[in-house]
């Protein structure tokens, strides 16, 4: 009987140990493959841009560390956001990667909510070598948690043949404000019958472009307090948006494919967007030589507004899980230091990074024949260095998607602008406490 009891207790201990081991597994606890090599996992979206850039970095890093296996997994951006929130809020790292791509607008919501879930990369990069505006979103309490990646630097893409029909050239677009931009759009539409812009009423990205050009945002410097009422920059951006609509120079689109089609089929003459829009313009090969990219218009009545801003952009983050040092080393030696790699990123992917030394490479200086031989990458790199630094904070999309989109429609329908911003402030104060 004693022997059977001893066997039973031993079995229970063994089962308990197995159960404990299974419970403690995180999905990323193994830092080695069966061949003894270290392994890291990376999550990102967009196979033609971010995933393609990762594959270039992966190949470049083989010379630095051939013993590291890099596993790249594609996820939609919204899925990444959901999975990170679910995992981090539950207190478990099970199934999470070593490196994850996060859009700059969303970064602070993760860093401030789950600071212990991220591994600082301050010791793995030289922050002074990156565009200053990228360091705010990627840092928290004096530590750098993100390795800045693509620049969301904006430009004004314009059909030169349509401009010429209205009596203009790209030289006439070099130092203009938004009021002048609208007047040129009227002339182009009158001369060509083509709409000047295409706009989605549910997407106010153009507002973000306008206000960042003047160093302002939806939130105050603390990144938490709404900055809507009595914000003169936002007020002028609203008024400028309405001027565009009232001028009848913009057609409406409801999704990405419609937007791109408006340019590719020749029905729209200009677009203000991030540099990542370049491949979409170039998709219409029959329009080669008919496009130019000129500086962003600045706000008409704000002395702080300049011809540079951002739309989008993202950065790489290391999660505080086993393998974090290897992951940080991988980012530091690739996106954080390899200027030659950035030349390949530009040539093969069209990805313009925010790593300043890369701008001295030949890939950044090469002419683009589609844009009439213009050195577009060099121009974008110059504008990147000028982008005003703002605090995107915790609530950019919450304010824009649930409050400002509705209030913009109210404004377009006749509501007083001061009342619009006052009501928006009240709603934001109630929602984001």
The separation of the N and C termini measures 65 Å
Strand order of the largest sheet: 2-1-3-12-6
Which topology of the largest domain does CATH recognise?
A: D-Maltodextrin-Binding Protein, domain 2
Give the oligomeric state of the chains in this entry, treating copies of one chain as homo and distinct chains as hetero. Answer: single chain
Count of spatially separate domains: 2
Structure class: alpha/beta
Return residue spans where pLDDT drops below 50 for at least 5 consecutive residues: 1-30
List the helices and strands and how they pair.
Layout: H1 2-24, E1 38-44, H2 50-61, E2 68-74, H3 77-90, E3 99-103, H4 104-113, E4 139-140, E5 143-144, E6 146-148, E7 154-159, H5 160-165, H6 178-192, E8 197-199, H7 205-212, H8 232-246, E9 250-252, H9 256-264, E10 270-274, H10 278-282, E11 291-294, E12 314-318, H11 324-333, H12 339-349, H13 362-365, H14 376-386, H15 396-412, H16 417-431
Parallel strand pairs: 1-2, 1-3, 8-9
Antiparallel strand pairs: 3-12, 4-5, 6-12, 7-10, 7-11
Helix pairs in contact: 2-12, 7-8, 15-16
Can you put this structure into words, describing what you see?
The chain is of the alpha/beta class. It has two domains: 178 residues, D-Maltodextrin-Binding Protein, domain 2 (3-Layer(aba) Sandwich), CATH 3.40.190; 156 residues, Periplasmic binding protein-like II (D-Maltodextrin-Binding Protein, domain 2), CATH 3.40.190. Helix content is 43%, strand content 12%. It has 16 helices and twelve strands. Strands 2-1-3-12-6 form a five-stranded mixed sheet. The protein has a three-stranded antiparallel sheet with strand order 10-7-11. The chain has a two-stranded antiparallel sheet with strand order 4-5. β1, α2 and β2 form a beta-alpha-beta unit. The longest helix has 23 residues. It is globular. It starts with a helix and ends with a helix. The N terminus is likely disordered.
């Amino acid at each position: 009987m004693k022997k059977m009891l001893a066997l039973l207790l031993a079995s229970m201990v063994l089962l308990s140990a197995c159960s404990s081991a299974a419970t403690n597994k995180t999905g990323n606890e193994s830092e080695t493959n069966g061949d003894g090599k270290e392994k890291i996992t990376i999550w990102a979206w967009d196979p033609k841009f971010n995933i393609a850039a990762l594959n270039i970095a992966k190949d470049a890093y083989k010379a630095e560390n051939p013993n590291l296996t890099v596993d790249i997994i594609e996820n939609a951006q919204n899925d990444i956001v959901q999975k990170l929130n679910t995992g981090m809020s539950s207190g478990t790292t099970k199934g999470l990667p070593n490196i994850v791509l996060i859009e700059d607008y969303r970064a602070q919501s993760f860093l401030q909510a789950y600071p212990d879930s991220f591994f600082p990369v301050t010791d793995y990069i030289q922050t002074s070598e990156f565009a200053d505006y990228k360091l705010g979103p990627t840092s928290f309490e004096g530590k750098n948690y993100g390795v800045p990646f693509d620049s969301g630097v904006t430009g004004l893409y314009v059909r030169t043949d349509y401009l010429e029909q209205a009596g203009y050239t790209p030289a006439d677009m070099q130092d203009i404000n938004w009021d002048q931009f609208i007047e040129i759009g009227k002339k182009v539409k009158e001369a060509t019958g083509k709409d000047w812009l295409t706009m989605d009423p549910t997407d106010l990205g153009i507002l973000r472009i306008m206000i960042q050009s003047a160093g302002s945002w939806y939130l105050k410097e603390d990144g938490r307090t709404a900055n809507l009422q009595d914000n003169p920059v936002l007020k002028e951006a609203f008024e400028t948006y309405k001027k565009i609509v009232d001028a009848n120079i913009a057609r409406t689109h409801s999704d990405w494919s419609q937007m791109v089609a408006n340019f590719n089929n020749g029905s729209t003459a200009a677009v203000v967007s991030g540099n990542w829009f370049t491949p979409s313009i170039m998709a219409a090969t029959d329009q080669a030589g008919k496009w130019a990219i000129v500086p962003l218009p600045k706000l008409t009545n704000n002395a702080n507004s300049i011809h540079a801003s951002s739309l989008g952009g993202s950065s790489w983050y290391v999660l505080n899980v086993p393998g974090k040092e290897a992951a940080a080393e991988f980012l530091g030696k690739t996106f954080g230091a390899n200027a030659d790699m950035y030349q390949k990123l530009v040539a093969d992917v069209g990805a313009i990074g925010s790593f300043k030394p890369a701008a001295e490479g030949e890939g950044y200086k090469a002419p683009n024949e589609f844009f009439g031989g213009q050195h577009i990458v060099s121009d974008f790199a110059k504008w990147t260095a000028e982008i005003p630094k703002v605090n995107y904070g915790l609530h950019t999309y919450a304010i824009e998607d649930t409050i400002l989109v509705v209030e913009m429609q109210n404004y377009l329908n006749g509501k007083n602008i001061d009342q619009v911003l006052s009501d928006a402030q009240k709603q934001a104060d109630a929602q984001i406490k």
